[in-house]
Inverse folding.
């Protein structure tokens, strides 16, 4: 057989082997990318919980459990790329509706629209008692996590074990069995990811009201924080900061900063000035606002009916009779406790960014309030928190809500040029 022929055969063989090796490596890389849609993470192992190496800092929107409120027009206007919400695990456990629930179906569309998703798993033990550790019911709750992940993990970038454990449990359970349950739940998530060759950051939380001394000194809270710090595959902790004044944000971040490792991150999936708004509900409507209401008949700013003299009464009136956006804006512009906090989006984000471990915060996107329900002087005023005002203000013809005075513009700017809040 000619020598040249043998050399050609050998060359073809080596080229084929090289191509096969390159194709296999490419296939492995594609599989890793499919299993880890967030390329800003660092794997600890071939699968399971991973750490976050992304040093950028983000602000996103929060839908809580109201995924049915997702409006693509509003999301586009907000300019964010991060969306957060939670699933009420016991609700789906009881209903066995993971494959038919419309809210979940809506949530699953977000990834294909280009958004990064953060999903909290809520276990509301205020609606049922903790079962005995390792009892049948206990194990059923833990194993149901697999069913949830089967449904949502492919469309979820960040998984958070818990929503508000220390609000959704009786105080007497905060050390045990709360700690045992949430550790078991987080471990189950990690085991699921490992078994399915999937990488995702796993966060634990949320830890709420951590500016309060009673939270900071509680053994159950500190034990769970210590476990998060000691567990290599936990990416970090989730905080909820519904507060009264901005320095409380710094108090929270300073307290938890050394409660986690240097390679772990902090996310804040809920925050607001709700407690500040609540403290001011009984204020009188200002003379300046009433003057604006009476100044013209053509500016879409109209006086409230006789007898409505308090802030809470006006909010109740607006929820039952959605106002023109010009009037709602005038209410904000002429109500000092609202106007003085108009830069909250900027100021809070600056405080978050000052902590190098901070990664993502998500803020309420849309008002939610039941129809035909009174708003009173003691109602928690969540309706004053969102960046879109879909209940107190008339909707646009498209069905989208209009943006809240000052808040939406600042929120969108943070997500684009960031010239307003450098």
């Amino acid at each position: 057989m000619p020598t040249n022929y043998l050399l050609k055969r050998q060359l073809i063989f080596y080229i084929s082997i090289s191509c096969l090796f390159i194709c296999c490596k490419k296939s492995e890389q594609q599989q890793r990318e499919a299993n880890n849609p967030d390329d800003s993470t660092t794997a600890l192992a071939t699968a399971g919980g991973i750490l976050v190496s992304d040093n950028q800092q983000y602000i996103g929107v929060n839908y809580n459990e109201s995924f049915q409120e997702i409006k693509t027009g509003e999301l586009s206007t907000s300019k964010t790329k991060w969306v957060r919400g939670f699933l009420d695990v016991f609700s789906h456990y009881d209903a066995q509706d993971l494959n038919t629930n419309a809210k979940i179906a809506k949530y699953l569309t977000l990834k294909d629209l280009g958004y990064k998703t953060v999903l909290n798993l809520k276990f509301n033990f205020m609606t049922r008692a903790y079962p005995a550790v390792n009892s049948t019911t206990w194990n059923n709750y833990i194993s149901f996590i697999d069913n949830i992940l089967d449904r949502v993990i492919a469309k979820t970038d960040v998984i958070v074990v818990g929503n508000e454990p220390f609000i959704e449990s009786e105080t007497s359970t905060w050390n045990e069995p709360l700690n045992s349950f949430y550790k078991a739940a987080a471990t189950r998530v990690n085991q699921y990811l490992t078994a399915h060759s999937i990488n995702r950051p796993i966060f634990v939380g949320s830890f709420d009201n951590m500016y309060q001394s009673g939270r900071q000194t509680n053994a159950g809270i500190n034990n769970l924080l210590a476990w998060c710090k000691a567990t290599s595959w936990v990416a970090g902790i989730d905080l909820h900061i519904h507060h009264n004044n901005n320095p409380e944000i710094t108090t929270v971040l300073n307290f938890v900063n050394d409660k986690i490792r240097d390679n772990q991150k902090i996310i804040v999936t809920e925050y607001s000035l709700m407690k500040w708004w609540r403290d001011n509900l009984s204020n009188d409507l200002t003379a300046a606002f009433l003057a604006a209401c009476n100044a013209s008949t053509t500016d879409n700013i109209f006086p409230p009916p006789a007898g409505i003299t308090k802030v809470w009464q006006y909010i109740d009136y607006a929820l039952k009779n959605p106002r023109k956006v010009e009037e709602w804006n005038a209410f904000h512009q002429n109500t000092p406790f609202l106007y003085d906090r108009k830069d909250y989006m900027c100021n809070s984000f600056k405080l978050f960014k000052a902590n190098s471990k901070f990664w993502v915060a998500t803020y309420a996107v849309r008002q939610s309030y039941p129809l035909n329900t009174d708003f009173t002087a003691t109602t928690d005023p969540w309706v004053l928190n969102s960046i879109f005002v879909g209940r107190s203000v008339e909707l646009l013809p498209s069905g989208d809500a209009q943006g809240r005075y000052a808040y939406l513009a600042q929120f969108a700017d943070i997500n684009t040029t960031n010239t307003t809040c450098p």
